[in-house]
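Structure ticket #2291
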Amino acid sequence: MKHEKTEETYETRKKRKRFMKKSYFVLDGRSPAAVASVCLMLLCGLLRTFYYVRAAVTPFFFWVYYVNVAAASLLFLVFVLFFGNRFPELTLLPLAMGVFFFVIKALTFEDTLHTILCVLLYLSVPVLYALTLYGKIRKLLFLHLLFGLPLLVHIGMDLQELFTLDRTLFEWLPELSVLAIMAALFALSFAFRKREDMPGAL
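Resolution: structure written out below.
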């Protein structure tokens, strides 16, 4: 009996070593949350297309604000729908591209303190996302809060600006696309589930 227990422990240990480099969570690409997330990200791409085909911006900002975000949206769609169940870590790439956009956007803020705080927040997102994905943080509630709270804050700020700033619908398109990005990530946080072939999974 002791020998069998030792063998079982040894086999379990081997399994754990094999899965150490695999993600703890996977994405259910066919779940309503994943589909909603992808639709919101596509909406972001469409809104930015409508805006940047007409807006006068420098080539640098055109590539960062439009091409980069549009490419990230398409990669997001492919990785979530077709690779989420096997290689959810691929979603780190479009997430990083989105973070790059947000960091560049933050560098245009007039308030230095606001810029610093936003840059630190944005840079922490892929790190915390990866820590959750690989099981260092094993509560999906953390992802819900990570993406949900900034979304609520952003909605509140936009509602305040809606009543204080005189903007046309066209001028609101970039901001609406940002809300779509944040809502997409919040929806995505509900599409995760624990990897079934992970040792110890129920």
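Closing remark: DSSP finds seven helices and two strands in the chain.
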